[in-house]
Fold each of these.
Amino acid sequence: MYNTVLVPVDLAEKGYTDKVIEHALHLLSPGGNLILLTALAGYQMPLVGSFFQPGTFDKAVKQVHQKLVEFVNDELPIDAKDCTIKVVEGKPVESILSVAKESQAQVIVMASHKQSKVGYMMIGSIANKVLSHSDIPVMVVKG
């Protein structure tokens, strides 16, 4: 059992996310901290940011945070008040590893989706990259 479990969440993959969080809850110690993380890529980069109105990123963070709260309360056997919800800006792999370190997570539980061999060779998978660079255990749940 772990006191702090980090789960990267992609709300576009709700069917996988439910399954991953179920596994994470089985690993979580009673009273432990479940951290649900979503990374928003690119908003703050100067080139990308110049296309958006001021405050757009803050609005996006609030909207994604609210969608995560609704997802937890509507779809999971826990209350959003009983977990930590984080929405950060950055690339997924770097964001996952950074939040794991800063939160002192003891394990990362994440989904892996099937990819074609060409797709895997070209870009790799987020799960594979996290596995390769993480200093803590990573549980990969096949989707």
Amino acid sequence: MNKHYFIAIKIPKELASAIIQERDKTNLHRTHKILPVAEDLHITLYYLGHVADGILQQIIHSLNRLEWESFELKTSGVAHFGNEATPRVVYT
């Protein structure tokens, strides 16, 4: 089975902890065996899918050369995709 990759930005620790606190007020702990920890929360920028190793290394090298400026992002509410009872991805 091929690995699938995506480009993402890590969420600052304080914000990720706040999201986890809100998530823990939901019933996701009853419908999912494993829930991500705060350190794993991220903003997905682009889904790459399967990428050959040589190309993946080129992408990583290029991304490491980028210089990012901070930005503000506002979200509203929580949504999901996947099965209604056991959504695969929950996002804000």
